[in-house]
């Protein structure tokens, strides 16, 4: 059976370049044959190309080639010194946080990217994710269908994302709640699912991105999961309700790093991915050497 074509997708920028380098090293060790497309802030592309431009199966795309001009201009403003001053003044005047935040922008980049990929499916790898086991394209499919990780919503956060999704797709809030969680490593969706979602959002909003940035808890994966379920009826997907920890060694606290790395070593990288969550603010120099030593050891011939 022919396996649909697939690529990895990563949004990144200069402050994450060391994390990105670790991700790239893990891909070279464990998954060198799957194409990797990195969408990088336009002003950082030269730095990324100087460092990674010769690597196999990597394409570096500036955000200016992906985002609408107005979104790209706003992104550049908020990343500039003028934007930082405006944000600081906003906080001092108690005007609240700006809606155009980096984590929302990365979500918009993923939603824009999946609509125009030259592949049948995308696997999203953020820069704080590292492979620790061998992965081929066939590993993401079952009987020719993309393996979709879907679990019932279980936390307040899951339902917060679901409310934002319900608002964005224009569904009534009085409907009985039937929420799911799709934020499992590594999220994967068919390109046509992204296109179907995009058509729906365009039909509901003059500019869906503006509405997306206004939401407090939007989730690109929740939106894509809804599209697979409601717009496409799971066609082309193999749904798996598996425990979230089955695919990833998840470092949620700084104290958990050594224990998770030890478990990964004991299991021979069986779960395939290590996630050191970037919101921990853990210095890269504190964990990168230990993670890199582990994956080099796991990749060594036995």
Question: What does this molecule look like?
Answer:
With 302 residues, the chain is an alpha/beta fold. It has a single domain (6-299), classed as Alpha-Beta Complex (Spore Coat Polysaccharide Biosynthesis Protein SpsA, Chain A), CATH 3.90.550. Helices cover 43% and strands 17% of the residues. The chain contains 11 helices and 13 strands. Helix 3 (69-79) packs across helix 4 (81-92). The two termini are 31 Å apart.
Short synopsis of the structure:
The chain is α/β, with parallel strands linked by helices and 302 residues long. 43% of the residues lie in helices and 17% in strands.
Number of domains: 1
The name CATH uses for the topology is Spore Coat Polysaccharide Biosynthesis Protein SpsA, Chain A
Choose one word for the global shape.
globular
**Which secondary-structure class do the elements indicate?**
alpha/beta
* Strand percentage: 15-25%
Largest sheet: 5 strands, mixed
End-to-end C-alpha gap: 31 Å
Helix-residue proportion: 40-55%
The Cα radius of gyration reads 19 Å
Compute the number of strand runs.
13
Low-confidence region ranges: none
Helix and strand pattern: EHEHEHHHEEEEEHEEHHHEEHEH
CATH architecture: Alpha-Beta Complex
- Output the number of helix runs: 11
**Main sheet strand line-up:** 3-2-1-4-10
Q: Mean pLDDT score, rounded?
A: 90
Q: For this structure, what is the CATH class?
A: Alpha Beta
